[in-house]
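Bench notes, afternoon.
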Amino acid sequence: MASGITAPVESSRMARVAALEQDVSRLKYVSGAREEALRRLGIESVGDLLSHIPRRYLDFSHAYTIESAPLGQVCTIVATVDRVVEKRPRPRMTVTEVYLVDATSVLQVAFFKQPWLSRDLKAGDRLAVMGKVEFAYGFKQMSSPHYEKLDAQSASGTIVPVHAVGEGVSQAWMRRIVSTALEAVADIPDPLPARLRTRRGLMSLSRALRSIHFPSSMGERDLARRRLAYDEVLLLQLALRLRNDANLLDIEPIAHRVGEHVARVRAELPFALTDEQVTAVDEILADMARADRVMNRLLLGDVGTGKTAVAMVVLAAVADTGTQACVMAPTGVLAQQYAVKCAPVLERAGVRSALLTGATPAGERAKIVDGVRCGSIDVLFGTHAVLSDDVAFRRLSLVVIDEQHRFGVGQRNALRAKGPGADLLVMTATPIPRTLALSVYGDLETSIIRKRPVAGAGVTTQVLDDANRDIAYGAVREALGSGQQAYVICPLVAERDGTDDLEDVPGLEVDDEGKPRSQAPLHAVETEVEHLRHVFCDATVDMLHGRMGAHEKDDVIDRFRSGQIQVLVSTTVVEVGVDVPNATVMIIENGERFGLATLHQLRGRVGRGQLAGRCFVIAQGAGRKRGVSPSMQRLEALEKTDDGFSLAEMDLRLRHEGEILGLRQHGGVTLRFIDLDADSDLIECAHDDGVELLRFAPTLSAPATLPLRFSVVDRYGDVFKEVSGG
């Protein structure tokens, strides 16, 4: 136990942990099939159950009778099932019509492709439906509304939560079990200091947990979510900063010198740095020169804003200091691009560098590893290959990680472990909204470059449906006739990969009437290459994707860069790192499958030099569904602006933050309660409060902050054992 933990605080914490970590099977009503059903939902403990918040609510306090329900508006109606009719208007299409009655009128409800409803619903059932009310054929109607079968406990005038459930546990049983769990933790201690809670106008944790599941009003539900969202962001802020403290305990920072090598690199650059680049360089070098703390900085810049030039200058500081730097990129393509651009400038300035990837020949690799070990190499560019145990630096003092969201936390820490006390510079060309940067990268100071040093000829973007793809093909033929090149981007490598989870296929979204859209065929690189060799029979068409060997990928990129390949069919592996100014046209297949950040990065591969670029995004429904679905809203925004930061803000409103940065896939944290768009003020508050709390108690060891420290450890585990007293 850590020193300074008083018995009452520890006892309170233990009671809290015991209540929340109790196995769900210990609760009343949980056994047999219901226990199995809960575990299938990922609910193992009482805490898991209370975090399983309702996915929606039926607000009976504003329920309408059928007669009074206004047309064209989303309403909640409670009525009784009169009859259920199953129809098949065409093969493989089932429509279940449910006729509901109350004392005022009749409501016809249609459900598409849900034949089981004809078995689940029967005359006399009491049903609550929520959806848009329309009128046709003499009846008020709803298409595919949210619905809930009501039991005797569901009384009009209340708000009924609708949880995600599965076979073995019904909505009614879920409500009973959650109510039992809330009783078990009724007196749960609140980890948030009372003064802070009062200042931010937040309800207590116990009340928030009850109100999020069983609110007396939708306003109370909103206040409960706000409290849980605040906790989520605050704990993440504290965790990020405590992780750094834990990793840097008893480690002396390295104070870098800025001398002749930095000056020579600046002189060797073939262009003058912009004001924004100069500011970024000065901020980074100032951090690196500090002897009292290790640098943790994010360099954020849109496509083509010149982050590489900034990196070249700051990398030279290790030569002035007599230490080493390592630049880790997510792909061999990008690592090679860094080496190609940076090495000549660094060498002329007296800074020795090398490139290490999975494609590096064994003999050359051995020489590089020896050079890194003895210190004859100042800067090492590489991929995951630099994480190998045999890659040991003489004195690593600067770690640069590009596109950090493509690496896991463990990989970042593994590289930093090769140089205790090394400064960290994270770079990304993925524009990140401020709220997302504060919440996910809250432990990093930020430098931003918004303007491109060289504007380039620019790129125009046009969204097409499949019927108009001849426009895109015509642009490719025109480019090829002028001696230029083109990209074609596909979401899949091979057709056999098209077995995605159905819920992830945008073609299976429902339209405004609740009717399923047809599934969009997904284009695959291997198939598209063969097709395009017939379409552009006079051109050399080849492919590039992540499953190819490192040598094979390097060969394809070299041949495309030299002009031997005229049309390159690729996955998003070209999103960053491939810089071929002669490539002026890009076609993106299945554009509805990609987020704005990826689309913006992809089109940034053309129009980079003197030649204007053209990007054609082919998407299903582009001709008739503009502005309707979130995917089409994204594509229309892409046509209208080339401001990556504006697009990122829109992406944040339309997509989950994990879809933008790949957090789930790369060891990050998914934020469940916070709305990164609507809760910007809450995120600012949580960020500021986290900084203030750690200024007051650097390891949260003060009696008032100990419950917060325990909450961080409970949520984020052994990563923080150095600061948890464990």
